[in-house]
Protein: Serine protease
Amino acid sequence: MVLNRIFSRYVFAQLSVLLLLVAGHERFQLRLDNPPAHTPEVIWDEDNRLNPTEVTAPLQATIVLVRKDMGRVEGEQLVLQPTTLAQYRPNLCGDVSFRSEPAPGSCSGVLISPQIIATAAHCASSTDAAKGFYYVFGFNTAEAAAQNRQVNRIPIKDVYEAKEVIGWELGNSHTDDLRSSDWALIRLERKVENRAPVHVRLGGKTDADHFYVIGHPSGLPAKVTARTDELDRQSMMMSNFYDAFFRARLDTFGGNSGSPVFNAVTDELEGLLVRGDSDWMWEYGSGQRCQREARCPQDRGQTGIDRGVLSCSGETVTRATEFSGLLMYDAVQADTSIGRTVPKEVAPDSEHFPINVPDYGRGQIALHFESPKAPQSDETLRTVGVNLEASHSYSIAELSLRLEGPTGRSVDFGPLPSSPVHHLGASRPEVHAAFGDSPTGTWTLYVRDTAAQDTGEIQGARLAFFFSDGEGDAVTLPMTMSNPVPVEIPDNRYQGVDLSFNPVEPLPESIATMKSPGVVSWQLELKLNHARPRDAVQMRLGSPNNDRSFQFRTRTMGTERVFGNNNRHQIFYYGTNPLGTWNVNLVDWNPTVVGEVTEATLTLKVTDMEEARVSLRTPPRIPLGEGEGEAPEAPEGEPSEAPAAEGEAEGEHEQMSTPAPPAEEEGEGHGQMSTPPPPAETPSPEAEEVPASP
Structure:
């Protein structure tokens, strides 16, 4: 027995040495030059991503966000990095779609007004982060073919840079309402030429069953998932419950973050693609492995490479109604620009300049101002701007500003962008929402240093107050509650209780004559009789026809509750139709204690927004220029080919250096996969909103 064991071990050792020697020979090495193939069943049953062959308005309005180090200017073109998807991911399986195409993009976006694009907040939520990208139109095969150019050579006229982020929300970044929203609106440095903004859903939940996406998966040239023959027989909608987002079966990848999701029937923008399952899985075969596209529902429950276990519960789409209020606000401001009025500037009380700003952690400077009276008795305050001249021993950006109004509302202006600044913040929607119609009183400008070891100095400061000129002034719309008080709040019931508010009848003449009334500001006041007010932890306010619906987290509120003081809450309802029934839903989650509503008041201020609505509903139609129609058709019997990317033709163009493959993406966001992350990273969104439990 012992001899047999010794002999067996000897034979095993000799065989092991032989195998090692054989494996050392090149033709026996395990290589991934020819990785195992797999059946390409992509994401949802089959891969519907296609290179577009026709130049359509939605395609023309779609952009790719490209880091500025991923392109170079050559004459009248921006040449995007030609590195292919396979070069970024060298372990891809041999039949992965689009593996030989260039992949310079980071995120996607869409044009929603002549100078504003929408994208995901986790791509760029600050102006500094936004300025790290080029905003590139025309990175697609259809426009490249129509213009007879290579797909990664973009005319400079189609390349834009960011001026500012005018609004954003990521998870619970602006409220404590657990909405799990994810969007950012970026104003470009100039208006977009020869491209029309898309039609944006301004209110209501979508009732569509079918959608299509245009975007840049993995940073590739734009792909379209629209069906060319017929819609799916099966609905693409998987969950339409939540206020802030819905989930649908969509074929998307990293780089699709911010991609426009369109109604497949009407072409209306329903929202932005922001989150989803893992994109890549390991495929094993013959002792080798390679990366393939994840498939749903086949891969449900399996662990993906980039985002954990696949749930196959659908891709998450932030609803367009999350930012439609801000879009309406910007459109109204375009009609009633603050530049048409001359502000009244006020100096601080009893301050002598220069004033030293103490180092970080040693306090802040508070400058006090008394607001002026309106030039005319019928005028009201519209917005406020800051004029400031300062210096800093290290960087002016280390000085941060915050303005507080007479009512106690405040706006954080963030780092000082330069010095001097003139009317800083006057055009920001959150400033209008916080300070519009403010009474006279004391204003306080706080200036503090945000980093240690260096100090700053203020040489001068003034506040600029802009008043309305009497045109389009907001009018109070009287509202009455249908429920007789007190109203009992059912104990521990998911349905809760509904309070209904309606405009008075007949309408005031000033409102009845408006062509398209829209909400400018609102406030809801509730008084409760409840021994444990923290039990009533949920309140939802829905505008008429549920065009805008917002669920408020109220756990920390007492028996007297005021809603509408938060800037995000104000802007959310901006522009919505005020005429009809407003619904307030209150839910008490905990048993044993029953409460009631003893008083409820809803106050709305409205103005005529006809011109703004028309401009958003009917954006100018841009005629396709010469050579910008459909891509030329291939001869019968031959496949249509996209123009070659730069560098694919041997020796045709100088090759750009190929960076190392990026690290795998973390978190749920789709962006930042195909290229290294942008200069300023944004934190991951909070946990998604969950429905109230019965």
Notes: The chain has ten helices and 40 strands. Residues 199 and 267 are 8 Å apart (CA to CA).
